Amino acid sequence: MHAIEQSPSDERGTLLAYVEAQRGALRRALLGLTEEQAALKPSASELSLGGLLKHAAEAEHGWVRRARQLPPDGQRDETNWHESFRLMEGESVASVLAYWEKVARETEEFIRSVPSLEDTFPLPDKPWFPPTPRVSMRWMLLHVIEELARHAGHADVIRESLDGKTGGELLAEEAKRELASNEGE
To answer: Considering the domain boundaries, does residue 127 fall inside one?
Structure first.
């Protein structure tokens, strides 16, 4: 993905940079894994790295679409919620990463376009949403950061359970790959 432009006085850029940092942590957890490894569930949990990646992308997309007062692509409810945590037939880590790239662009473009982070939008009256009728754009961004960070932590534990690689090792591996890619250009 790309670096978010920010300055110390740019609240939008700062919040978007935090969103991108958490996206990066989740993406790195899949670095160098096969599709089969990404689908493994090495604990009592039903979570896999591929499933976490998909869920995080869908969650970010859903919040931005709600803030734009548009329906998300594909509705989730009690009958299909479990599908948001696993790659289904025809889905791959690469396809979810491409989808998330599109979502990331939509998030940044939308946040940069809203008149104020104090602007609000309505929430559906569902038990899994906060018990408030409206939330601000700032609240939404902070919630997305919270959601992504929570799952980035899950991803760290799952990845370390798979092959012992830690977040720090994966960060160094990503930097090496980027350097090699830049030298090859």
So the answer is: yes
Token pair listed for 70: 């548009």
130-164 residue pLDDT tens: 888 899 999 999 999 999 999 999 999 999 999 99
In a domain? residue 133: yes
DSSP 3-state assignment of 134? Answer: strand
Q: Let me know if 61 is exposed, middle or buried by CB neighbors in 10 A (0-12, 13-18, 19+).
A: buried
- Are 63 and 140 in contact by the 8 Å Cβ rule? The answer is yes
Domain that holds residue 38: 11-183
Here the CATH number for the domain that contains residue 146 is 1.20.120.450
Question: How many domains does one find in the chain?
Answer: 1
Asked if residue 4 belongs to a domain, the reply is no
In a domain, 2, yes or no: no
- In total, the chain counts a number of residues equal to 185
66 phi-psi bin (left φ>0, alpha ψ -120 to 50, beta other): alpha
Q: What is the C-alpha to C-alpha distance for residues 42 and 102, in angstroms, rounded to an integer?
A: 30
Q: Where are the beta strands (DSSP E) in 14-119?
A: none
What does the alpha-carbon distance between residue 31 and residue 170 come to, in Å, rounded to a whole number?
7
> What is the reported pLDDT for 51?
95
